[in-house]
Each structure stands twice: as structure tokens, then as C-alpha cells.
Amino acid sequence: MELKRKKKMTYFTIGLIFLLSGMEYAVILPTIWRYLQTLGAAPYFLGLGLSAFSLSGLLSGPLFGHWSDKTHATKKIILFANLFEIVGNFMYFMGYSKWLLISSRLVAGVGTGAGSSIFGFMGRCTAHEDRSTVFASVMACRQIGLMIGPVLNLFLRLCDFKLGPFVVNKYTAPGLFMCFMWTLLQLVVVFMFWDLPPLEELVGEGAAGGAEGAGTVEEAAGKPLLGQRPDILGSYGSVVTPDPPRSTANPSKSNLPHVSPTHSPPLEGVGDSSSASFSMSREFLREEVVVLFTAHFVILFNQTALETVVTPLTQQYFNFGELENSIIYCICSVEVITGFLFVHWLCRRTTERVVLAVGLILCHISCVWCLIFLANPQGNFPWQLAEFIIGVFLQISGLPFVAVAQVCLFSKITSVKSQGLSQGVRRSVGGLATILGPLWGGGLTGHMYIMLGLMMALLALFAIMFSFSYPRLVAPTVVDHADCLEECDKCGGLRV
Question: Which of 29-43, 258-272, 354-368 shows the lowest per-residue confidence on average (mean pLDDT)?
Fold first, then answer.
């Protein structure tokens, strides 16, 4: 099967994976609060249930990412991770006790660790200029799942029968349904997913084949032969530039790029274990990487904290049940999908840091609105409902900008060879946020000023970091090695 067709089917399968992850979240979140109440759980169990899912994902993400970097066996990792989703959702369906319910989310969360391998896979197989749109499309698939989930709840809530010793009702049906869907996905992955070779391998094959081979690779990848050296970028923004024209007396050196001696780290010791350990710290503790980690943490912490208090607030002020909450999540998903489509268009016309700045402004506006109007709602029912709708709309509007910009820029400023591990660490930071966010929101539903005050403080901290680091938040310079393909191994060019 030709490479182009394999690539299309593989990305279609990735889209399905993220679609199901969004569906699972959307069919369970509107009902888990009432489900826990039927099992005699205290209010804080809502935060525990949501955080348990994130905790196991936090721990499994770097492990799956590192596994992917070492073996490039993304298909096996996905199949293995999906088994946890199947078992976890079946446990959720059983629902004998509140502790089994918490355990079910803990088991299912392990399956989300495969996302690190998938993002690493896409980072290795996509060109820099296409990465924003590819990531935006994949992340939009999850939002489509978030939109479909509430619609499915309209039908799942009608379930009322027995399946052997198990009761199928509006609370247990989501677990059974998602168990079935993840099982079907296993078949799709088996027949429609391929471990595509990294882009630099395709270019390397083209170089080995001479000019004719290089042309073939350019057709397959759709991009010119470009090179960079992300593994030697010490201080962010260190640029590899070609040497100016010089004498051709020694042609073997005429095309070698040079590295700025001010910013580039020394290369001695590469290959030994101590140096590898140092490289990891240098990779993740750089200023621009820390800023993107902070962006990921803050946006997910605020989002999950607000999501946790939505159902208790709508129950308290508007007497909403599962149906009304499902409709709310469906409408929110439509807004988010529209936002991702706009970001998909915007990323082709501007840089990621500009997109990130737009998202940051929208998040600040949302948090200020919530502090003024949602912390202590005033007025009659229509006015309170309008305040709630506007607050939710503003909060969601900034999410696509920050989400796409930070994940795409992160993939560009980290080494191609360790994309799986890097994405795993990034997702672990997000996992920590999705653990603390529900715990913070769930424990302070009666103290909204305190809850929203911390959210505002985190946004202010991120805004300060973003302002000072704005010049560094750009993708590394890419240099053309088309004239020295035979020398690329010597000059260290990493072709992408």
C-alpha cells in the first residue's frame, strides 16, 4: 500500500481515538455526580473521581512516550493502552460501590497515556509548517466527541433494563457504551493504523538515492529538504546559520553550518549516561519550555475547576438535571469546535505565540467576568442564567487558542528524537492540573471567591512569564541542507 494512503488511514484512526476520548468524557461527566449520590458518596468524591482519571494518565504518559521513542511501535502501545479503557469502563458499568467507581476511572485513565505516543508520533512524521494545522485538526476531533457525547446521553438516559446480574440505567449505560466503543476501536487500529517512518528517515532515503530519490521524497513529504539541529539548541533561540561564502579550496568544509558560540552548549560527553541525564534537564528546564508547561497547567487547571463546579451550580441555581447539563456540554462543544476551526485558519497566517497571546487575553476576560458575576449571582432567574452563559462562553472561547498554540510550539522547540517522552512530560503536567483542578473546584463550590481568586492569580502569573519570554517563543530557525546532503551526517543537520 502506498505511503500516502497509509498516512491518511493512520491519521483517520488517530482522529477516531481522540473522538472517543472526547465522547467518554462527555457521556460520563454530566452523570457521574448523580451516579455517586446514588451510591451514598460524599460531595468530595466528585473531585476524586475526576482526579483519579487524570492521576493514572499523569503516571502512564511519560512511560508510554518513552516506550514510543525507543521502539517507534505506536500501534502496539495504542492497542495495549486501549485495554485499560475497556476494562475501566466495564468497571464503571458494574458500579457496585463508590470505591469501585473511583477505581474504574483510575484504570481507564491509564489508557490516556497513549496520547503521549500519538503526539510524539505526529511530531516525528509532520513538517514544522504543517504541525499547527495537523494538531488543531486532531484536537478538534476530541471536541467533536465532546459534542456527540451529550447527544448520546439523550438516548442513554432512557436505558432501563437488566443484563444478567447488572442493571443498565442512565448512570451505568455510559460505561457499557464506551466499553463497546473502545473494543471496536481495537479492530480499527489493527487494520487501519501503520507505524509510519519518521520524516527524517524518508528524507535520508531520498538523499541516499541521489537527486532522483530526493525528488521522490519531496513528492511524498510535500516539503523541501530542510535541516535543523534541535538537539544542540541550548539556550532557546540559538540559531544554526550557514557559513558565508568562502574559498572552495577545501570543498568538504565550504557548506558546513556553524553554531553561535554564545548560545550553543558544548557537545562533549554526548552518548554517556551522565550527559544524557544532563540533556534531559537542559531540555525541560529551558525558559521557553517552562513557560509552555505553565500555559498547559494553568489552562487545564482553570478549565477542570470550572467544569467541576458547573453541575453543582446549575443544580443549585437553576435546578438542572442530566438532560439540561448534557445540552450545556453539547452547546459548549459546538463553540469549541468553531474555535478550533478558526485557530486552524489563523495558524496558517500568524505565529503560535500570537495565537497564544489571543487565548491569554480571552482567558483573563473570562476570569474577571466570573469573579464579578458568578461568584455571587445577583438578580432574577433570567439574569442569573445570562450571567452563567456568558461566563461559560468566555471561558471556552480562549481554550482552542491556548491549547493548539502551546502543544504545537512545544513540539517544535523540543528534540525530534524524544518527542514521545517530551509529550509525555507535557501531558503529565496537564494531568497534574486536571487532578488539582477538580479537587480545588469540588472542595470550594461554596466559596467561589477563593476558588476563582486562585484561578485569576495563576493567569496573572502566566501573563507575567509570557510577557518576559515572548521573544523566545518562536520555532527554531530551519536551514537548507540541500547543497550538502552527503555532508549532513558530518555537519549534524537533522533533516525534517
Answer: 258-272
Percent of the chain at pLDDT > 90 equals: 16
Q: Which amino acid is at 257?
A: P
CA end-to-end span of the chain = 23
Please give, one letter per residue, the 3-state secondary structure of the chain: CCHHHHHHHHHHHHHHHHHHHHHHHHHHHHHHHHHHHHCCCCCHHHHHHHHHHHHHHHHHHHHHHHHHHHHCCHHHHHHHHHHHHHHHHHHHHHCCCHHHHHHHHHHHHHHCCHHHHHHHHHHHHCCHHHHHHHHHHHHHHHHHHHHHHHHHHHHHCCCCEEECCEEECCCCHHHHHHHHHHHHHHHHHHHHCCCCCCHHHHHHHHHHCHHHHHHHHHHHHCCCCEEECHHHCCCCCCCEEECCCCCCCCHHHHCCEEECCCCCCCCCCCCCHHHHHHHHHHHHCCHHHHHHHHHHHHHHHHHHHHHHHHHHHHHHHHCCCHHHHHHHHHHHHHHHHHHHHHHHHHCCCCCHHHHHHHHHHHHHHHHHHHHHHHCCCCCCHHHHHHHHHHHHHHHHHCHHHHHHHHHHHHHHHCCHHHHHHHHHHHHHHHHHHHHHHHHHHHHCCCCHHHHHHHHHHHHHHHHHHHHHHHHHCCCCCCEECHHHHHHHHHHCCEEC
Backbone φ, ψ for residue 494 (5° rounding) = -105, 105
Instruction: For residue 457, list its beta bridge partners.
Output: none
Residue whose C-alpha cell is 495537523: 134
The pTM of this model reads 0.65
Strand 479-480 and strand 226-228: the pairing is antiparallel
Residue 195 C-alpha from the chain's centroid: 20
C-alpha cell at 245: 561564502
Beta carbons within 8 Å of 111's beta carbon, 6+ residues apart: 81, 82, 83, 84, 85, 88, 182
Q: pLDDT at residue 361 above 60? A: yes
Nearest to 49 by CA among 41, 61, 58, 40: 41
Measure the CA–CA gap between 374 and 388, rounded to whole angstroms.
7
Higher pLDDT, 428 or 203: 428
Distances from the Cα of 485 to the Cα of 69, 206, 218, 223, angstroms: 25, 10, 14, 16
- Name the residue among 300, 292, 296 with its Cα closest to residue 434: 300
β-partners of residue 162 are 167
